[in-house]
Amino acid sequence: MSKIERGQFADLLRRYLGMSGETNVADELAPEVSPVFVLESERIEWEFLKGAKVAGVVANQGAAAAFPSAFRIRNPSGSNVMVVVNGWDVSIGSASSVSLARLQTNADLATVIGLVPIPRDARYPGAGVRLSAVIASSDNTVAPPFGDIFWGIGLGANIPWRWQDGFVLAPGWALTMFTNANNIALFGGAAWLEKRMDQLEFASGQPT
Asked: Per-residue pLDDT tens for 100-139?
């Protein structure tokens, strides 16, 4: 059997099957228990075994007369983690439209949202401990542009909407949800998975 080269999958098999002391677990598995997972489709509790974290955050940004409201999550340069955003909820205080944009930046918006995100796996410590690489922030004092807009929708007042297509944030990139009109409050929430990046997952072949 070929050797498993991707470390996180070897770690998952070794830990899930209790193969203590083994590193090249594919060499030790009997043919009848050879791995046949659909990779990256495991249940959420398995991510802990691979060293991945699932987390989420919410933001409540009030309205300002001369500016839109915005909510950002950012994967800092040098984090060496990949952030897979798999859900984003939004509602606004008045009927308008909202957009979601990506931007390569190391800047946060004016209000950094404290010691959050919150892990979505209770095996990690909770409040008061920053365990996520992601930094969340919000603002109502900055005008667009917020980057390349790739999604938008018109919403009625206080009607929630969920965007749930996946998006990958490499180190140094951010996603920003913002209202397309001024003086509108925005309430948003995002959920994601973050995991360490192997060398082959960096676009340049090297960490940034």
From this structure: 999 999 999 999 987 667 888 888 765 556 678 999 999 9
Question: Which contiguous run of DSSP H or E holds residue 88?
Answer: strand 81-92
Tell me the pairing of strands 167-169 and 81-92.
antiparallel
C-alpha closest to that of 98 among 88, 107, 106? 88
- Residues 92, 152 contacting (CB under 8 angstroms): no
Q: Helix (H, G, I), strand (E, B), or coil: what is residue 145?
A: coil
Annotated domain spans of the chain:
7-43, 53-196
Contact (Cβ atoms closer than 8 angstroms) between residue 105 and residue 154: no
- Site of tokens 């010691």: 115
Q: Which residues contact 42 (CB under 8 A, 6 or more apart)?
A: 12
Q: How many helices (H) and strands (E) does the chain have?
A: 1, 12
